[in-house]
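ARCHIVE CARD
CATEGORY: sequence design from structure
SOURCE FIELD: tokenized fold
FIELD CONTENT:
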């Protein structure tokens, strides 16, 4: 009887759909789809949380950096990161956020910078930016900081 029960449980477990991995920080939650992987899980260092995600089958990746803005506005933070990433042009304001393009290891990238209250977020999209932005819109949620996500 115990063997039949164990076999039944095993078969039922096989029948269950795969449960997506969920990663949570104090700023955002990511529901990892099967075709994406975590390159660097959300890690906090000196109040700044960073995470990197990549699509399994292509060179698409998303990097998110979020933390206290220390009183700086989105334009200032965007300018600082644009200089650091050697952006092709100065950041441009879109929907209350700032964006700029840059190239990293010969891969086209786009950064989105936003500030909400005293928190900033830089979302860097590498490779196919439409796929990367789609990943964020479908899989990254934030109850308290939704305005930080690329719009």
């Amino acid at each position: 009887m115990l063997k039949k029960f164990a076999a039944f449980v095993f078969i039922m477990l096989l029948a269950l759909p795969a449960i997506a991995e969920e990663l949570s920080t104090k700023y955002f939650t990511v529901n990892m789809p099967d075709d994406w992987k975590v390159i660097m899980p959300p890690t906090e260092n000196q109040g700044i949380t960073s995470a990197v995600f990549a699509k399994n089958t292509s060179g698409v990746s998303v990097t998110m950096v979020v933390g206290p803005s220390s009183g700086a506005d989105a334009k200032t933070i965007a300018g600082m990161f644009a200089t650091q990433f050697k952006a092709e042009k100065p950041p441009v304001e879109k929907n209350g956020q700032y964006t700029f393009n840059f190239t990293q290891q010969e891969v086209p990238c786009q950064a989105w910078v936003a500030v909400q209250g005293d928190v900033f977020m830089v979302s860097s999209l590498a490779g196919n930016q439409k796929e990367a932005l789609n990943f964020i819109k479908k899989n990254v949620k934030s109850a308290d900081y939704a305005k930080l996500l690329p719009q």
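CARD ANNOTATION: The radius of gyration is 19 Å. The chain is about 25% helix and 45% strand.
SHELF: design records, drawer C
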